[in-house]
Amino acid sequence: MTTLITGASGFVGSAVARQLLKEGHEVRALVRKNSDRQNLHKLKVAIVEGDLTDSESLKQAVSGCQSLFHVAADYRLWAPDPAIMYKTNVEGTRNLLWRAAAAGVNKIIYTSSVATLGINKNKAPGDEDTPVNLEDMVGNYKRSKFLAEQAVWELIENEKLPVTIVNPSTPIGPRDIKPTPTGRIIVDTLRKKMPAYVDTGLNIAHVDDVAKGHLLAFEKGQVGERYILGGENMSLKDILDTISDIAGLPSPGFKLPHDFIYPVAWVAERWAIISKKEPLVTVDGVKMAKKFMYFSSNKAKRLLGYESRPARLAIEDAISWFKENNYC
Asked: How far, in Å, CA of 214 to CA of 218, rounded?
């Protein structure tokens, strides 16, 4: 079976690519011309150059494929030109799925995010059915992913496209080359650049467990259903304490009020426009941190057989990889 995967050079995508190879898929990876390909080093994948914003390249990429894993996304909490994010995440997703359907692809896994799901105010874990709407989305990344998922639902319902949706939570682990915002928290803590924290929480999952969940959704998931691929709900303080304990470092002990960070984030974003470098803290990030992003993977566990290891083991693997690759 020839399977196209987008985002294969990235953090989650490369983990999914490894699982596909392990299960015997003939893997074709759609990669942008100038992307960092170190995560594909020594993997037996056929690389095709293209871009989600280039419809013709998508047509060529899906030709001859029987299945598709659309993992790629523009994942940034801040962008100087947000329109690019919407073009990639929304229009790119719609165009890719259209091209896949026209090419006769018979099974599609679309990687959404828990960012598109509802969050309970009482810290109770949200699930696939927790109420949510576009007005609940904070920032352009969340809004673009929400609109992208809505576009996928429309294609499933109106065009009968064979799509199953997965919603990963906050993956951490090896090969986080960018790194992701959560990976940066780990790196900054190891560098002793995380002296304080805010009161928030995340659902932490090992990236390899999330990748296995993608394959389980492919094998057992139903078209027109979505499944949360998560792990353990942890406060940011508990995450930082765990990182510090594993690394033998003092844990940050000073809690900052969210409103204290707003002006810092505002200045950081203005400087980013001048410096052309991503800000260390963003206004949207501060707004998101006011909510505890806790989720339940019970549906995936019950219907797919999904399993997730303890968050501490995921954090240990992430720390080992960052140290081995000189991020610290």
From this structure: 6
Q: What is the pLDDT of residues 160-202, one digit of tens each?
A: 999 999 999 999 999 999 999 899 999 999 999 888 888 999 9
> CA angle 236-267-327, nearest 5°?
50
Domains of the chain: 2-177+204-232+294-310 (3.40.50.720)
Residue 107: φ, ψ to 5°: -150, 130
How far is 252 from 240, CA to CA, in rounded Å?
7
Residue 227 has pLDDT above 70, yes or no: yes
Give SS3 for 231. coil
What pTM value is reported for the model? 0.94
3-class DSSP state of 267: helix
Q: Report the interhelical angle of 92-102 vs 55-62 (nearest 10°).
A: 40
Q: Which of left, alpha, beta for 192 (phi over 0: left; psi -120 to 50: alpha)?
A: left
